[in-house]
Amino acid sequence: AGERDLQAEADMTQVMEMVRAIRNVRSEYNVKPSHAIAAAISAGEREALVRGEAEVLATLARLDPAQLTIAANLDAPAQALTLVNGGVTTYLPLSELVDLDAERARLAKELAETESQIARSDDLLGGPFAQRAPVNVVAREQEKREQFVQRAALLRERLADL
User: How many degrees, rounded to 5, is the angle at CA 27 between CA 23 and CA 30?
Assistant: First the structure.
């Protein structure tokens, strides 16, 4: 019985991690809570578990049961976000999540603003400011610049995904 309990707990953990990942994507893409989205789940050897928990996934992750595909092996659809969790791959069609053109425009604008912040930091750090300012102020500016660089990389990645 102990092994069965451990397996049941592992199964539920996997389902909850799938729900969490889908919810995170919904939040990241500002999908309205009332909007149920499509999903394709390539579950491999976990197909029986995922099928058994389809209703829970649909309810907690706000998936559209009519547009929920679960199979052992599915090919990745075009323009879909891919979430991998313990041997289970979930594909969320981006067209279901966002207006692709509007999202591209928003991300491009945000990337341009971030790149201008990087250029501003580069100017500060490469100019007289860096020699005159206290060390902790320069270090804080370098830290801000690094955060902008990381943000720009993330934005470029999201743009490439679209």
Answer: 135
